Amino acid sequence: MPLSQPTPPPPAVPPTKQQYLCQPLLDAVLANIRSPVFNHSLYRTFMPAMTAIHGPPITAPITPPRKRKYEEDERQTIPNVLQGEVARLNPKFLVNLDPSHCSNNGTVHLICKLDDKNLPNVPPLQLSVPADYPDQSPLWIDNRQQYEANPFLQSVYRYMMSKLLQLPDKHSVTALLHTWAQSIRQACLSAA
Fold first, then answer.
1. For the stretch 132-152, what's the b/e string if a residue is b when 16 or more beta carbons lie within 10 angstroms of its beta carbon?
2. Is 133 helix (H, G, I), strand (E, B) or coil?
3. Which of 49, 118, 175, 180, by CA, is between 20 and 30 Å from 168?
């Protein structure tokens, strides 16, 4: 009994025949390439085969938008009015929540820094914004010891105190910040 012999490889096909084998496909592509639905037709024709070969396309999972609960609205500690005002502030005022204060009564504590290259660095301004802002004005948390380091800071403190007395009873966070910046400018002018 003869042993089974492996099947011989198919005979080599001349290159001209391979070109003729794909020619109908190339002709169809060239004839329809300017068609407005050509991409869609190619997608419908070849996508099932490409999916079978490569697997389905990788996409991010679709998560439904989270519904806000009523309790979340009550937990919101920063009033929308204050958020809008801080968002519209001049970029030289850097305003952040004070991490050392956490109040349950709705009062928001802010730390404000002045980033103005034309003015010297001064200690940050600390504000307490009541829950019913803007019906009630924000308060400046007076940290006098921060402003006693040198005569310049002492003059900033004095100008700030005098300008605060000139503010109307009802004022905004923006008005307080501009008053602070004016006090620093005035101290710079008097020191010159």
1. ebbeebbebeeeeeebeeeeb
2. coil
3. 118
Note if the bond before 134 is cis, omega within 30 degrees: yes
- Cα–Cα dist 128/133, whole Å: 10
Q: Is 100 exposed, middle or buried, given 0-12, 13-18 or 19+ CB atoms closer than 10 A?
A: exposed
Query: What's the alpha-carbon Rg for the chain, to the nearest Å?
Result: 36
Q: What share of the chain is helix, strand, coil (3-state, %, to 5)?
A: 45, 10, 45
DSSP secondary structure string for all residues of 7-21: PPPPPPPPHHHHHHH
Amino acid identity of residue 145, one-letter, is Q
Cα atoms in the 13 Å half-sphere on the side-chain side of 20: 5
Amino acid at position 91, single letter:
P
Contacts with 106 (C-beta within 8 Å, 6 or more apart), sequence order: 77, 79, 130, 131, 132
Helix axes 151-166, 173-191, angle to 10 degrees: 140
Distances (CA, A) of 33 to 21, 23, 45: 20, 15, 14
- pLDDT at residue 10, rounded to an integer: 58
Buried b (16+ CB within 10 A) or exposed e, 2-23: eeeeeeeeeeeeeeeeeeeeee
Ranges of residues in the chain with a pLDDT under 50 are 70-76
> What pTM was estimated for this model as a whole?
0.57
